[in-house]
Amino acid sequence: MIEHIPVMLNEVLQFLDPQDNKVYFDGTFGGGGYTQAILNKSDCSVVACDRDEHVFQYADEIKQKYGDKFHFSHSKFSEIKKVINKFSYSSVDGIVLDLGVSNFQLADASRGFSFKSAGNIDMSMGLCHENAFDLIRRCTEEQLANIIYEFGEERFSRRIAKRIKENLKQLKTTEDLANVIRACVRKQGKIDPATKTFQALRIYVNNELDELRAVLQEAADLLNPGGRIVVVSFHSLEDRIVKLFFREISDTNPKFKIVTKKPIVPTENEVAINPKSRSAKLRCLENEA
C-alpha cells in the first residue's frame, strides 16, 4: 500500500482546531490522513467524501477503528450538503480540503497522472464524463490550445496543441504524450516541459475549478458559528479562487473573518521530507457569528 503523507497536517489541525462533540467534513479523504488526525485530536465526528473509488480500502480501515464517529461517501466535494444530509447532519463545525493529487494516484501508472511512467492517458479522479485521451481526441486544435492555456497557464499552448493533434495516432501512453510536448517546448529550469499541459488536462477532465467554486459556496452556508474552512491548494489557479472567495464573503458578510491574512506555507523541514508539499498554500476562513 502506497503511503500518503498529509500535507501541512500540523497547520491544518492548528487552524481547524477540532473540539469534542463537534462535526467536521473532510472533502478530500484520500488516504485518510486528515480524517484520522482530526478523530485522534478530539472526541468528535468526521463526515468524509472522495470521488476516487480507490480510497475505499482506507475508508474501511478508519470505519473499523472509529465506528460511528466516521462516515464516508463516494461523492464529489461539491455535493457537501447532500453528503452531510445523508448522515443526518444539517451543518458542520469545520471543513478541510486538500486540493492536491494524492501519492497513490501519482504512483499508479494506469491512472495517468504522472508523466514519469508509461501509463494510460486517463487522469480521471473518478466520477468524470471523459478521460484525458477522450478529451484530446474530441477537441479541435484550437479548443485544446485554449484548455492548455487557461488551465495550465502554458504560453506555448498553441504549439503544443498542434503537435499533439498531429501525433494523435502515436499517442498510446502518458510517456508518449510527455515526449510529444517535450519535443516542441524547451526545458526551462527544473520544471519538466510537460508539467503545465498535464495539469491543464487533469483540471479540465475533473472540472476541478468549478468543483472548488461550488464547494466553497456550499461550505460557507453549512458552517456553524465558530467553525472554520481550511483549504490547502497547490497552484495559482486554485489559490486565486480561494483567496477571492474568502475576500468577497468577508467583505459582504460581517460574520465571516479571514484568519490567514497571508497564505501559510509549509516549513523547510516538511518540504525536505515531502517535496510534494513545496507549492502548498493554506488559507482559513472563520464564521464568527
Structural account:
The structure is a single chain. Strands 3-2-1-4-5-7-6 form a seven-stranded mixed beta sheet, with helices on both faces. It contains 13 helices and seven strands. It folds into two domains: 9-104 and 208-287, Vaccinia Virus protein VP39 (Rossmann fold), CATH 3.40.50.150; 129-206, Putative methyltransferase TM0872, insert domain (DNA polymerase, domain 1), CATH 1.10.150.170. It has helices spanning 9-16, 33-41, 56-66, 80-86, 103-107, 132-138, 141-152, 157-166, 174-182, 195-206, 208-222, 236-252, 268-273, and strands at 23-26, 45-50, 70-74, 92-98, 223-233, 256-258, 281-287. With 289 residues, the protein is an alpha/beta fold. The longest helix has 17 residues, at 236-252. α7 packs across α10.
Order of helices and strands: HEHEHEHEHHHHHHHEHEHE
CATH class of the largest domain: Alpha Beta
The number of distinct structural domains comes to 2
Helix-strand category = alpha/beta
**Which CATH-level-2 architecture of the largest domain?**
3-Layer(aba) Sandwich
Terminal CA distance reads 43 Å
Low-pLDDT runs of 5+ residues are none
CATH topology of the largest domain: Rossmann fold
Overall mean pLDDT stands at: 96
Instruction: Tell me the number of strands.
Output: 7
Beta-strand percent range: 5-15%
* CATH 4th-level superfamily of the largest domain: Vaccinia Virus protein VP39
Q: What is the overall shape?
A: globular
Helix content: 40-55%
Number of helices: 13
Q: Write out the strand line-up for the largest beta sheet, numbering strands in chain order.
A: 3-2-1-4-5-7-6
Q: If you compute it from the alpha carbons, what radius of gyration comes out, rounded to the nearest whole angstrom?
A: 19 Å
Main beta sheet: strand number and arrangement?
7 strands, mixed
